[in-house]
Amino acid sequence: MTIEIVGPEVEGRLDWIALTEAIEAGHRLPRAEVADTILRRGADTLLTRSAWIDGLGLAVKAASIFPGNVRRGLPAISGAVNLLSDASGELEALVDFRLVTKWKTAGDSLLAARRLARKDARAILIVGAGAVAHSLVEAYSAGFPGARFSVWARNPDAARTFAEATGATPVADLAAAVGAADIVTSATMATEPLIRGAWLRPGTHLDLIGAYRPDMREADSDCFRRARVFCDSRATTVHHIGEFITPLAEGAITEADIVADYYDLASSAFARRSDDEITLCKNGGGAHLDLMTARYILGVARGA
Fold it and tell me: Domain containing 54: what range?
């Protein structure tokens, strides 16, 4: 079998809405088998995610997250995505790691927002000003034409630089910015909550991306108390990420309060019920989403 190499040259042919449809279609296939391992050395992390979906194939994604690399002028995240044949298990393609990660992460959030945010949502606050934040502007612009973006970051200089690059408006008062937003999307490395439930106004959709370890959270437990709570995958978030572990331990919510994940997309469960309810979705990622995204990218590369 010839191993295909798919790099960033294909990105100009990718489409955010088509990706969300591919992810939704992937969840109509048999439920994915997934397995994660996390190895740590201080602040540095090696995250290995594997998935197998009958009919779609296998994927193994290894990611190193070294936050200190930013000070060295190096990427904080590096790795590789291996796509293997469902029929034979042979290595079928190597798909660019950053391309898969970018499109999987923002596409995951966009799919949830297309179901959970109000249709008239236009005021979008991005919390964080890193690489994921840039892709969120692209994704949310495709899903919410005419969106107006603001950005808050702990480093005001980073927020200003981001604003200059994207046209977003930098804001200094996070509480006021959250209270003025229709959609709040957060992509930070926070280990203590940045977003308070008391700040959320009725009708807001809260998109939580950044936390991926048991010791990480971006939103306080009051956010979970006030919102109807969703996630992309119960299997990869509920008992793995501090965003859920802490409010569950505190009794702020129970597992029964997590209304739906993407395997409920085919039903009416994964949906907003009214214009004034607060919705919250935890974007935990997961190798099954990397597999779906890599398959979409490979299909585009092949001209499908």
Answer: 4-100+288-301
